Amino acid sequence: MPRPRPPFPAVQGLFGKPTIINNVETLSNIPEIIRLGVENFSNIGTESSKGTKVFALSGKVKLTGLIEVPMGTTLRQVIFDIAGGIPDQKAFKSVQVGGPSGGCVTEENLNTPIEYESLLKIGAMMGSGGLVVMDEDTCMVDVAKFFMDFIQRESCGKCIPCREGTKRMLEILESITKKAVNPDVNEALERFKGVMQLEQLGKVIKETSLCGLGQTAPNPVISTLKWFREEYEEHIFDRKCRAGVCTELRTFTIDVDKCTGCTICAKKCPTDAIIGAKKTPHFVVNEKCIACGNCFEVCKFDAVVIS
Amino acid sequence: MDITVNINNQELEANRGEMLLDVLNRNGIKVPTLCHIKDAFPTGACRMCVVEDMSSGRLVTACSFPVAPDMKIQTHSPRVVESRKTIIELLLSNHPDDCLYCVRNKNCELQDLSEEHHVRNRRIRGQKNKQHLDISSASIVRDPEKCILCGRCVYVCEQVMGVACIDFTNRGNKSTVGTAFQQGLNTSSCVNCGQCIMVCPTGALTEQNHFAEIQQALNDPEKKVVVQYAPSISVSMAEELGMEAGKDINGILNAALRKVGFDAVFDSSFSADLTIMEESAELIDRIQNGGTLPMITSCCPGWVKYAEEFTPEFIPNLSSCKSPQQMMGAVIKSYFAEIENLKADEIYSVSIMPCTAKKFEAQREEMTQNGISDVDAVLTTRELTRFLKLYGVDMFRIQPESTDSPLGFRSTAGKLFGASGGVMEAAIRTAHFKITGKELTKFQVQAVRGFEGRKEARIKAGDLELGVVVVSGLANAKELLDEIKNGRNDIHFIEVMACPGGCIGGGGQHIGTSEEELKVRMGALYKIDENEPVKVSHKNPEIIELYNKFLGEPLGRKSHELLHTKYNERKVLI
Predict the structure, then answer these.
(1) Chain B: nearest CA to A154, how far in angstroms?
(2) Residue A183 has what pLDDT?
(3) Nearest CA of chain A to the CA of B24: how many Å?
């Protein structure tokens, strides 16, 4: 369990004795510094961030894996030169830098050099050195939800803001991306209040949590809210996920011209949301539909349309 | 004070390196906390004490932030107040909303903080964790749904009591405080002391309640309902009633209990005198006939269970005397029953104790005669207050009355049982008389008085020099027993009380009492001892009468049957 600092581990750590804690990456730099000499090693990188940095490159890029680049390399160089860009002619959307508690960086900041300070300035961080590239088919609310789910499971549970707060943030994101259980007129308003709360909770969790996990936990939400607010608003008010990732927000209709009335969709529908007599076109009752997609998958005539 | 710090635009004096929270408290700046425990290393779990450090622009927790020169702090800036309020709202979002039904209603730190921070609507909603109530213990009920995971109970159980039967389990949002393998508290190493209840900010830890049975007995015309109250009750109940700490309400307590409908009101200080008669005889017997030494008191049921579980090798050292509660219970259902011409099962015996472990003790198999419990139900000080309210007793407008005879008169030695060192002092007074035939020239044994966790003294009784040690707080007992295991052999008699300060700080007392107030209670007992004439147990006329008419002599056959017992090793997970 984390404990308040001071005393820092370097003063009082394991068994109450001064303790140095280092990441493997830091230690692996030491032989290089010795081999190259301090001067030469310091020449690599930028004025404020010396040496190299290892990234775990993943997501929608042609080449994935571990890379080591000199500090100061731009994110654009990493994604488009080293990783070969986005596959399938898709458009770049965002890159999550720094692991689960890092932040999302958009096209306009891709020329930012990789340095500790400059990454912080654009709402990301060096963090664990994770680089997850996302293309136009990625839903940013879903991304925030994914990372929040991870972080709230990682929380140790000691301090209140992280333990309770991250769970509440996850629940709000879930309510935005899922079909309402009890839809009523105020529901959109409630969801909107939820987003306001995400910002407020995020701020308090960042400022008051005990350890680094909680202090950075809201980052994925804060940065996606900053750069992709319109996606959140679409989810909330239009109940629409432009990337089609949030499956529960899909609406299903049946093309009357293509439907042969074979009834297979009605038979496979778990909630009896499809009605229609044999050999006549069928219809989807939206109120009953849970957007599972069964009808779309079983239709042999491409009559089910997703929007 | 060697530095000054700027707090809320005011220069305040401070000692370099002390925690900011201490400086704030000293200067009357109230910053809320839910997890802080005085003198303990700050855990920083609740984050309620955040303040704004103007130089770094960060929010820092006052409990764990050492002061330094030139520090600029704002304790109630808008940012700070909003953060604290959000933290409370987050707790409430995962808290059962049953304040009206909660035993801690109007005496709950979470409720107070919600009020202080103007939480007036439910801004943050969420799924509440579902958890099981643990009612397995005879003394303590745990409701993990109300637990806010502040960790105070875990700290007290481990550090003050040395028991550690509860700890944090699971992680993240699924974290709970629980016993090993989430088994019931009754099968854990819990000694039922109730100190966890005393520090719990919410209603997650409460005592087992027997109101219904007591009311049923009171309503039953066939039952003679008898009540006894522990020595500490009369000086520790005042805060519960809204009176000044340490006020002795002995007389009005007697009157109030009669108003509720108890047929006879006895004082456990009487049976404390009885315990002293038996215990001092046992001590002298052990010293003169080569019995197991040091002899250790067995008045405290928390300590007895601890010994059974953690240090079974010391069970032979435990005095065979039952505790005053049980001695009184046994005498009520034998001697008193005989006088009243009643059968034991026609009497319903209630005791009012400062203690939750007494509830466990009362239902122990060892504490029965022919299958009938010596004591039928136990109420804590807190419960008694609620009970009196239920029966509409106005403690401010009631005329004092005295206890009933023949088990109501007490010496001040018996009354001293309420504070740590009291059993020892009372025992020394009587043992000295029994050994030398003379009373002590000065009755007060200053060396065993006071609030310290361990007190030692060497007492001269004729040619004999007795080594005596008094410990309170089970962690202190453990330390002492370790010394004995390692060869220390200069002690004849040890008094152990599980709760720090003894019964005045028991787990059934008023919640929220400071150490200073406990000392006031202690002082109140010492004052009674100073002012009243009968200062030794062996001079209590009703005790003399009890021996003459019924028991015979200390350690005699009848005493052995009714007032003594033995304990066995108890195998639990430790």
Answers:
(1) 7
(2) 61
(3) 19
- pLDDT at residue A248, as a whole number: 87
Give the predicted TM-score (pTM) of the model: 0.92
Is the pLDDT at A188 greater than 80? The verdict is no
Nearest chain B alpha carbon to A200: B86
Mean pLDDT for the stretch of residues B270-291? 97
Going by their DSSP bridges, the two strands B140-142 and B205-207 should be labelled as: antiparallel
Annotated catalytic, B279? Answer: yes
Contact with chain A for residue B42, Cβ under 8 A: yes
- Kindly list the residues from chain B whose CB atom is less than 8 angstroms away from the CB atom of residue A1: 168
Q: Domains in chain A, please, with CATH? A: 1-43 (no CATH), 44-135 (3.10.20.600), 140-238 (1.20.1440.230), 250-306 (3.30.70.20)
Instruction: Please tell me the CATH code under which domain B212-563 is placed.
Output: 3.40.50.1780
Residue B158 contacts A where some CB pair is shorter than 8 Å: no
pLDDT at A181 over 70: no
For residue A182, pLDDT over 70 is answered with no
User: Rounded mean pLDDT of chain B?
Assistant: 96
Which residues does chain B have within 8 Å of residue A148's beta carbon, measured at their own beta carbons? none
pLDDT digits (tens, 9 = 90+) for B19-65: 999 999 999 999 999 999 988 999 999 999 999 999 999 999 999 99
Statement: residue A262 has pLDDT above 80: yes
Please state whether the peptide bond connecting residue A6 to the residue before it is cis, i.e. omega within 30 degrees of 0.
yes
Q: Which residue of B has its CA nearest to A155?
A: B172
Report which of B355, B387, B388, B359 is spatially closest to residue B375, judged by C-alpha positions. Answer: B359
Tens of pLDDT along A200-223?
999 999 999 999 999 999 999 999
**Do the beta carbons of residue B205 and residue B151 sit within 8 Å?**
no
* Sequence-separated (6 or more) residues with CB below 8 Å from residue B78: none
Question: What tokens does B300 get?
Answer: 């405290």
Reported as type and span, the H/E element at residue A36 is helix A24-36
How do B58-61 and B50-53 pair as beta strands? antiparallel
Q: Give residue limits of the domains in chain B.
A: 3-76, 91-207, 212-563
The shortest CB-CB distance from B44 to any of A4, A164, A207 is to A4
Task: Write out chain A residues lying below 8 Å of B124, CB-based.
Answer: 168, 197, 201
Q: Which candidate in A160, A168, A205, A213 is best for mutational testing of the B interface (most B CBs within 10 A)?
A: A160
Q: What is the pLDDT of residue B292?
A: 96
Residue B68 to residue A6: CA distance in whole angstroms? 12
Class assignment of domain B3-76? alpha beta
Instruction: Tell me how many degrees the CA angle B151-B153-B156 measures, rounded to the nearest 5.
Output: 110
Q: Which value, to the nearest 10 degrees, does the dihedral of the CA atoms of residues B214, B219, B224, B225 take? A: 30
| B91-207: CATH architecture | 2-Layer Sandwich (3.30)
